[in-house]
């Protein structure tokens, strides 16, 4: 079954279809990871996007029930060089083709993904569509020009109601902007008593739960499309220790008076070097974001830059100079990716313990 990938600049790629036979539109991006296609497909941060995987062979170890980062994938479509029809792994339960069919996600294979990636790197992220070869590409280009990408991605992927993930340790409220399950797993592994709240939870609702710490999760889209979250962060800042990841990092920056901008083609992959400015150490990190905190906007705020990306110098970490709060742009839960930055969860809990000890000492 032939399909075509049409870009808004008029470029057309013809390939073999797999997965669902539906027509899908979205912003096309690329991920450079060599493994982890299952986690990428189920990462809510890809909501509404057509994902190109630059590694040439995808699906070779199949799909299993243990490696999902969400229950319902939000990715719009998948573009690969080759989709393996016969996976080989003892955990494999189905092929990538059958999984995409089951989830209603179209895929296209057999195209030059290196050429496509170069186009995106040159022109920046573009709108695109996957459709049948019987559709006139000129009509698709017209539709793409008239298509306005949705700005409610966080609303689409966030939990609709609060839910607990019990533990016997400190209580951590996770604000779900499109949370990867890896974040919850890391906190549960540290015995945290977690409560997951919707993206539009107010500061009052969160503080009413008497949390020891607050986690701002990752998520899709433009942070400026979530003004209610910015207001919530302002309401809890300084009252409870706070740790933000990816979109949570960007929202924290906006709440503190900094600004964010859209990147040309973003950071998406599992091998991005990040330097800790305090220690000088470099960590290899997993990343997935299309927006960044504007470094020129930090002056005049109470924020301090703690980490930078070595590839382009963009901000990868922030700390508040007066409140117990820090954030990172990358993914310390790293699914997929290296585990260099997993200690940030321990750093957060150390901050939580210190705040609790100070509060108990003040009472005494």
From TrEMBL:
Protein's pathway: Amino-acid biosynthesis; L-arginine biosynthesis; carbamoyl phosphate from bicarbonate: step 1/1; Pyrimidine metabolism; UMP biosynthesis via de novo pathway; (S)-dihydroorotate from bicarbonate: step 1/3
Chain intervals for the UniProt region annotation (CPSase): 1-170
CDD domains linked: GATase1_CPSase
Organism domain of life: Bacteria
Residues reported to bind L-glutamine: 45, 219, 221, 247, 250, 288, 290-291
Active-site residue list: 246, 331, 333
The protein's Enzyme Commission number: 6.3.5.5
GO process terms (BP): 'de novo' pyrimidine nucleobase biosynthetic process; 'de novo' UMP biosynthetic process; glutamine metabolic process; L-arginine biosynthetic process
Reaction equations catalysed: L-glutamine + H2O = L-glutamate + NH4(+); hydrogencarbonate + L-glutamine + 2 ATP + H2O = carbamoyl phosphate + L-glutamate + 2 ADP + phosphate + 2 H(+)
Single GO MF descriptor: carbamoyl-phosphate synthase (glutamine-hydrolyzing) activity
Pfam families in the record: CPSase_sm_chain, GATase
Keywords: Amino-acid biosynthesis, Arginine biosynthesis, ATP-binding, Glutamine amidotransferase, Ligase, Nucleotide-binding, Pyrimidine biosynthesis
Segments forming domain Carbamoyl-phosphate synthase small subunit N-terminal: 1-131
TM region positions: none
Function according to Swiss-Prot or TrEMBL: Small subunit of the glutamine-dependent carbamoyl phosphate synthetase (CPSase). CPSase catalyzes the formation of carbamoyl phosphate from the ammonia moiety of glutamine, carbonate, and phosphate donated by ATP, constituting the first step of 2 biosynthetic pathways, one leading to arginine and/or urea and the other to pyrimidine nucleotides. The small subunit (glutamine amidotransferase) binds and cleaves glutamine to supply the large subunit with the substrate ammonia.
Family: Belongs to the CarA family.
Xref: HAMAP family: CPSase_S_chain
Subunit comment: Composed of two chains; the small (or glutamine) chain promotes the hydrolysis of glutamine to ammonia, which is used by the large (or ammonia) chain to synthesize carbamoyl phosphate. Tetramer of heterodimers (alpha,beta)4.
Protein name: Carbamoyl phosphate synthase small chain
UniProt organism field: Mesobacillus zeae
